[in-house]
Amino acid sequence: MKANVLIRLNEDVMDAAGKVVKQRLIELGYPEVKGVRIGRLIELDVESADQAGTKERIAQMCDRILMNSDIENFDVMFSED
Question: What's the pTM?
Answer without folding.
Answer: 0.84
